[in-house]
Write a structure and sequence with these properties.
This protein has 139 residues and is mostly helical. The protein has 4 helices and no strands.
């Protein structure tokens, strides 16, 4: 595999990673919008949505970490092969210092934090919906 092909592979993995994060953000936005639009309290729906979101989040985080590990592996290959030709060395000297993928542990912590906050948001909306329904029932 040539140096240019390795560089393309690195950015291909970067694009895949970006799509996984975009999908994750869109799903969170949709879930919170769906939850906030429901009029009546429903514990079962909230529980099902929470479980389904956590299942999605688990698989999404796995894909993100896997893509990150692939980027790190390709970056190691790029570093090892940067002296193969003058062109590779010139590209490596300019481009490699800018390639700094996040570490998988940091990604896991961030993803899990967002997962917890999303589920907490779903349940906070449900709690608010229940509280408002009780207030309306009393009046």
């Amino acid at each position: 595999m040539s140096y240019a092909e390795l560089l393309n592979l690195y950015f291909d993995r970067s694009n895949a990673l970006q799509w996984y994060w975009t999908l994750y953000v869109v799903i969170i936005g949709g879930l919170l919008a769906f939850s906030s639009m429901r009029a009546k309290p429903d514990l079962i729906t909230t529980a099902i949505v929470s479980v389904l979101f956590l299942a999605f989040a688990y698989k999404n985080m796995g894909a993100i970490v896997e893509s990150t590990n692939q980027r790190i592996a390709v970056l190691q290959l790029l570093n090892e092969r940067k002296g193969e030709s003058d062109t590779a060395k010139a590209v490596a000297d300019k481009v490699l210092p800018t390639l700094q993928p996040a570490q998988p542990d940091a990604i896991r912590r961030f993803h899990l934090t967002c997962d917890v906050l999303t589920v907490a948001g779903l349940w906070a909306i449900e709690y608010r919906r229940r509280r408002l329904a009780k207030a309306e029932a009393r009046s």
